[in-house]
Write a structure and sequence with these properties.
Length: 121
């Protein structure tokens, strides 16, 4: 399962604004996004000016035999985000296995862009 943490206030990135502060993944069910949201929220409230509320959105994909699709989905979203905003989300430190938006093959690029545009300003 992949989750996206967003702030109500859009953040500035080198190539635009987005409410996304973190894109993460878990294979352990629904408890991990809640725990991560609390951890990231604690950091964000102290560091990001004007951030008073953080929301969590779940992004899922269909399954494929012998493929950990959630990891590919996270990497693909990070690659598309990096290509669009020229920087990873504020609290992401690793890029994932897919380095460039052009390398996204498991998912439709347009669908991934629509997911990210939902949080753009």
């Amino acid at each position: 399962m992949v989750y996206i943490l967003t702030a109500k206030k859009p953040l500035k990135y080198p190539n635009g604004r987005s409410r996304i502060i973190y894109i993460g993944t878990t294979g352990k069910g629904t408890r991990r996004p809640a725990t991560s949201a609390v951890d990231k929220a604690s950091e964000a409230f102290g560091e990001l000016r004007g951030v008073k509320e953080i929301e969590t959105f779940i992004v899922t994909s269909g399954t494929r035999k012998a493929v950990r699709t959630w990891e590919h989905l996270e990497s693909s979203l990070l690659a598309i985000f990096l290509g669009r905003y020229l920087q990873l989300p504020k609290y992401n430190k690793k890029r994932g296995s897919i380095r460039y938006a052009e390398d996204v093959t498991l998912f439709k690029r347009k669908t991934l862009e629509q997911i990210l545009l939902r949080f753009a300003i």
